[in-house]
Amino acid sequence: WQCFRALCCKGPPPPRPEYDLVCIGLTGSGKTSLLSQLCSESPENIVSTTGFSIKAVPFQNAILNVKELGGADNIRKYWSRYYQGSQGVIFVLDSASSEEDLETARNELHSALQHPQLCTLPFLILANHQDKPAARSVQEV
């Protein structure tokens, strides 16, 4: 009886804390691939995000609700509209990109770091595509 009672009367597990993050970076930097990998989704058929998407990334002790914002020229000017309520930032850059794209990414990163809704938040800067021959080291980036 004690064993049965322990099983049926235990109640639901305590809720995991949830954190709202924003994921930004230029088109092709690997934001969608990163989130698909974290969600254990198939890497097949990944399409660049136009606009934004939201994914819940489950971890053992927390859930990350990640707003991924598309990185195209015409979309980046709207990024700040999606910053409200964020508790952290993931900035993804293509470490194998051209000097011009790297400079654009640098400018977007500096803009995000100075934005009033983001400047006090933790930032993760991910130098993606380290497996490509043209990839720069973290120090170079």
Automatic annotation (TrEMBL):
Residues that, per the record, bind Mg(2+): 32, 49
TM stretches of this protein: none
Alphabetically ordered keywords of this record: GTP-binding, Magnesium, Metal-binding, Nucleotide-binding
Database matches in Pfam families: Arf
Domain of life of the native organism: Eukaryota
Family membership: Belongs to the small GTPase superfamily. Arf family.
Name of the protein in question: ADP-ribosylation factor-like protein 15
Organism encoding this protein: Psophia crepitans
